[in-house]
Design a protein that fits this description.
- It comes from Duganella lactea.
- Keywords: Signal.
- This is Colicin import membrane protein.
- The protein has four helices and no strands.
- 8% of the residues are buried.
- The chain has a domain of 111 residues.
- 83% of the residues lie in helices and 0% in strands.
- The protein starts with a helix and ends with a helix.
Length: 217
């Protein structure tokens, strides 16, 4: 058990000696991963030491030694952790400063480019109004009045035509009625003539018959 603790302590001290060699963010990240692994190993070894010490006669003395070894190992691990985190913070600040410097440089270049460009002619604030392209108000009113006049004339012409049509229809009706009266009168006259002729023929026939019967008496 002691040999295992010694090996862990040596590994921790060796890693602590290598902590000063961190020169990149990737190495710092790898160092933090190794820190977590070593801390877990130290705690596991201490738990094993506690189990062994509890079976010994001098329990407290054994536990004190195990705790001291754990403290030394964790202190070395913590030192590596601090170094790696410090390197990452410094790298982050350096990157931020570099980004700010690059942004400032680009802004200066853009300002210089804008200053070198020729200024544009100022836009006229009071430009002359454009002449109207559509018809004027007076023209629109005249056109509307002419349209109303044409519509009134069309309505009047239509009314006159309708009145003429009504009058023509009435005249045709009257002429038809007169023709019917003439036809009816002629029919009546012809019927009367036919009746008179029939009566005359009947009277003549009766007279002739009477003459023929007279000698026989």
């Amino acid at each position: 058990m002691k040999a295992r603790l010694v090996m862990i302590a040596l590994a921790v001290l060796s890693a602590a000696a290598q902590a000063q060699q961190v020169t990149s963010v990737e190495q710092a990240d790898a160092a933090l991963v190794k820190v977590a692994q070593d801390r877990e190993a130290v705690n596991a070894a201490f738990a094993e030491s506690e189990r062994v010490c509890n079976n010994k006669f001098f329990v407290n003395n054994c536990l004190d030694k195990a705790k001291e070894k754990r403290r030394v190992a964790l202190a070395a691990i913590r030192a590596r952790e601090v170094d790696a985190e410090h390197f990452k913070r410094v790298a982050s600040v350096a990157k931020r400063d570099a980004d700010l410097a690059e942004r400032a440089r680009k802004e200066q270049e853009d300002a210089a480019t804008r200053a070198a460009q020729a200024p544009r002619a100022p836009k006229e604030e009071h430009a002359a109004p454009k002449p109207p392209t559509g018809p004027r108000v007076a023209d629109r009113e005249a056109e509307f009045a002419a349209k109303q006049s044409r519509q009134a004339q069309q309505d009047a012409a239509g009314a006159a035509q309708r009145a003429a049509n009504v009058e023509a229809f009435a005249r045709k009706q009257e002429e038809s009625r007169r023709r019917q009266e003439i036809v009816a009168r002629k029919k009546a006259e012809n019927a009367e003539k036919a009746r008179l002729a029939a009566e005359k023929e009947a009277a003549a026939a009766k007279k002739a018959a009477a003459k023929q019967q007279a000698p026989a008496q």
